[in-house]
Write a structure and sequence with these properties.
- The chain has 303 residues and is α+β, with helices and mostly antiparallel strands.
- It folds into two domains: 10-116, PurM-like, N-terminal domain (60s Ribosomal Protein L30, Chain: A, 2-Layer Sandwich), CATH 3.30.1330; 120-302, Phosphoribosyl-aminoimidazole Synthetase, Chain A, domain 2 (Alpha-Beta Complex), CATH 3.90.650.10.
- It is 38% helix and 25% strand.
- The protein contains ten helices and twelve strands.
- It has helices at residues 34-51, 71-87, 138-146, 152-163, 167-175, 188-200, 217-222, 228-237, 249-256, 270-282, and strands at 10-15, 18-27, 55-65, 91-99, 104-113, 129-132, 181-183, 203-207, 241-243, 264-268, 288-294, 299-302.
- The strands form two sheets. A seven-stranded mixed beta sheet has the order 7-10-6-11-8-12-9, with helices on both faces. Strands 1-2-5-3-4 form a five-stranded mixed beta sheet, covered by helices on one side.
- Helix 2 (71-87) links the parallel strand 3 (55-65) and strand 4.
- Helix 3 (138-146) packs across helix 4.
- The longest helix has 18 residues, at 34-51.
- The relative contact order is 0.18.
- The protein binds cobalt (II) ion (2 copies).
- Residues 8, 48, 51, 182-183, 185 line the site of one cobalt (II) ion.
């Protein structure tokens, strides 16, 4: 898997019950503190393995760092990544660094998955409840940080969510034998949701009022602080998303907001939903029900 489908990682079957999952991701700093930047980049790179129901075990650093970057900053970036990987039970066994004007950091990650239990974008079924495991609004909040308009409290909050591993969410999905899922990253909720709707040949019905948002997201959105990617996502998807008329333009834009290290979007069959939510509670894993899967195509967003 990986050449023709839009899935989160490449998968290579080794035997009937074992496949190898390989993925990589890296990006420029999203926050001003190097340790947190490293941790977020690592959590984000690991996420694609969790999104497929896999377990990562080995990683390599990929770094591009300016020549004049003080050593304590570059080592803090790598330390942030290493700590996060350790927390995930993943060994960083080396990597490669090149010189570049703007810092870039991330991981190559290798994991295992049972191919019979794999989660992918094409696995949604009509009737599934749609579950989201992290709040939205990461793009507007990190853009507010770049513009020096973000409050301390909102900075802390977005860092905490972006650094959070999707490990427990992925384990929960595997425990409940789910089949449809992905992680929400650069294409935003609607972009990644659309990939799932297309791959699963279904329609996603999302309830705007049920979407979890970071505390500052709405006010930054009102100020028009959106990253460029939000407009790219909107232009790309506009015709395939139907919004209820009374949803304000700002609220619509928040659904196109690109996320860094966002949560998992999972389809949970209705008969498993109550037990799933109970187990999520026990594991301290947030799981918001944001809508459901219906017959049709594209995405509708209801007020
Ligand atoms: Co992904
Ligand atoms: Co990715």
């Amino acid at each position: 898997m990986g050449l023709s489908t839009p899935d989160d990682a490449a998968v290579w079957r080794l035997s009937e019950d074992k496949a190898i999952v390989v993925t990589t991701d890296f990006f420029t700093p999203v926050v001003d503190t190097p340790f947190e930047y490293g941790a977020i980049a690592a959590a984000n790179s690991l996420s694609d393995v969790y999104a497929m129901g896999g377990q990562p075990f080995l990683a390599l650093n990929i770094a591009a760092l300016p020549d004049d970057l003080p050593l304590e900053i570059s080592s803090e970036i790598l330390r942030g990544g290493a700590e996060k990987a350790r927390h995930a039970g993943v060994v960083i066994a080396g990597g490669h660094t090149i010189k570049d004007n703007e810092p870039k950091y991330g991981l190559v990650v290798i994991g295992f998955v049972d191919p019979r239990k794999m989660i992918n974008k094409g696995g949604l079924k009509i009737g599934d409840a749609l579950i989201l495991t992290k709040p939205l609004g990461g793009g507007v909040t990190t853009t507010a940080i770049k513009q020096e308009k973000a409050s301390e409290r909102h900075i802390k909050e977005v860092i905490q969510w972006m650094s959070r591993l999707n490990k427990t969410a992925g384990a929960l999905a595997t425990e409940f034998d789910l089949r449809g899922g992905t992680d929400i990253t650069g294409f935003g909720l609607l972009g990644h949701g659309m990939e799932m709707a297309d791959a699963s040949k279904v329609m996603l019905s999302i309830e705007n009022s049920k979407l979890p948002l970071l505390s500052g997201a709405h006010s930054y959105a009102k100020m028009g602080i959106f990253p460029g990617g939000a407009f790219d996502n909107k232009n790309h998807l506009d015709k395939k998303v139907r919004f209820d008329e009374d949803i304000e333009e700002t609220d619509q834009m928040l659904l196109f907001d690109p996320q860094t290290s966002g949560g998992l979007l999972l389809g949970v069959p209705q008969e498993k939903l109550e037990a799933f939510k109970k187990r999520a509670d026990e594991l301290n894993q947030p799981a918001w029900v944001i809508g459901e899967v219906r017959a049709g195509n594209g995405i509708e967003v209801r007020s």
